[in-house]
Amino acid sequence: MARASQTQTDQSVAGVKVAAFLIILIAVAIVVWNALADRYAPSSSRSTFSAQVIQIAPRVSGRAVDVLVQDNQLVQPGDPLFQIDAEPYELAVKTARARLQETVQGINASTSQIEAAQAQVAQARVNVEKAEADADRMTRLVDRGVMAQVKGDDAQRALDAAKAALEAAESQAEAARRQLGDVDNSPQIDAAQIALENAEYDLASTTVTAPSFGAISNLHFAVGQFVSAGTPVVTFIDGEDIWISAEFRENQLGNIKPGAPVSVTFDAVPGQIFEARVGSIGWGISAGPRQANGLPVSAAPTEWFEPARRIPVRIDIDGLPLAQEYPVRLGGKVDVLVQTQGSGWVVSVASALQRLRSKLSYLY
Fold first, then answer.
1. Which residues are paired to 234 by β-bridges?
2. What average pLDDT values come out for the chain (364 residues) when binned by 10 residues?
3. Contact present, 354 and 266 (Cβ < 8 Å)
4. ∠ at Cα 363 (360, 364), nearest 5°?
5. Residue 119 has what pLDDT?
6. What angle do CA 339, 345, 351 make, to 5 degrees?
7. Neighbours of 147 (CB within 10 A)
8. Is residue 112 one of the residues assigned to a domain?
9. Strand, coil or helix: what is 71?
10. 151 lies in a domain?
11. How far apart are CA 303 and CA 321, in angstroms?
12. Contact 209/79 with Cβ under 8 angstroms?
């Protein structure tokens, strides 16, 4: 009886030892895995889908006569957003044109050629302004690798063509003035021409258009509202300037390099893996106030272990397909995994775990 009881006790002790050994082994394995993953397959679930948010303001003041978009609507480049009452600016163009004609008639000159040439110059300058904005936007996208180089070249060629057209229009205007004889020596005519060009530019600015593909958000703007020049009235989310803001612990940054491939999952799109790459690594974060009243601040610890500092890392991703085909929204939660040039099996295991987490997004 005593011998049987002793046998059971020995078996229980052996079972406890085995369980303790397995627990210790699992704990060591977890610690080792986390250390390897942080170095060779760093990941972060503290990531956010980000984009440029632009406050669109009109260039001229006036009463809104038409709002052509709705809240949360997707728009294409050049789509009209709202229209400002153009009647005062049409009258200003007529007035400027009449003053130019009156000035030229005062020196026995015809105004028809000058009016046509100045209208072409004004339109050409509007085209150059738009082409410069498109080329600048496309250059940023090409530099980040979001768009192909050929797109940037096309935008640059369009800008060069617009500038050439402006030069041609100015040359035509200059030729028209020379044909009128003594126009070059008339400061009154020069001033009238500039006034007409400004009036036509203001008239063209009464229609406000979308600068790129994107979405209208938080729209609180209605017909009849008076808006002032430079006052933001429409919030625009740029669908072509999209990235992911990921936060990594400092000890995860050792092997993260710009250009490294990144696999990305979104809670909004469970079960799907998207490809991206590291754009840049932040150079600093705010660590809180360092002085007060001219004296250094010594912050007293409030936790047993000080939490790790996290550094922002920009992840570049082709945002157009995401915005057009998937329900990904600005500020949405993202899980990122950087595939460094370290151990291949670590990256493979980390990728499998990321795919599993993505599947679990169906549940919560």
1. 56
2. 59 71 80 75 87 91 93 90 93 91 67 72 81 79 72 76 82 72 66 89 92 87 90 89 89 87 88 89 76 66 70 82 72 88 77 82 71
3. no
4. 100
5. 79
6. 50
7. 20
8. yes
9. coil
10. yes
11. 44
12. yes
Residue 67: name the closest of 91, 92, 85 by CA.
85
Query: What is the dihedral angle through the alpha carbons of 71, 76, 78, 83, rounded to the nearest 10 degrees?
Result: -20
Contact between residue 315 and residue 264 where contact means Cβ atoms under 8 Å apart:
yes
Is 211 inside any structural domain? Answer: no
- Both tokens of 286, joined, read 């705010």
Q: What is the dihedral of CA 348, 23, 44, 301, to 10 degrees?
A: -150
95 belongs to a structural domain = yes
Confirm whether pTM is higher than 0.70. Answer: no
Q: What is the pLDDT of residue 85?
A: 94
pLDDT for res 202: 93
pLDDT the model gives residue 10: 59
- Domain containing 185 equals 87-205
Q: What pLDDT is attached to residue 360?
A: 78
pLDDT at 63: 94
Is residue 342 within 8 A of residue 39, CB to CB? The reply is: yes
Question: What is the spatial distance between Cα 186 and Cα 90, in angstroms, rounded to a whole number?
Answer: 26
Contacts of 147 (CB under 8 A, 6+ apart): 138, 141
Q: Hey, which residues does 75 pair with through a beta bridge? A: 214
Which residue do the tokens 């640059």 mark? 156
What span, in angstroms and rounded, lies between the C-alpha atoms of 164 and 124? 9
> Can you name the residues that pair with 266 across neighbouring β-strands?
269, 334
Total domains, the chain: 1
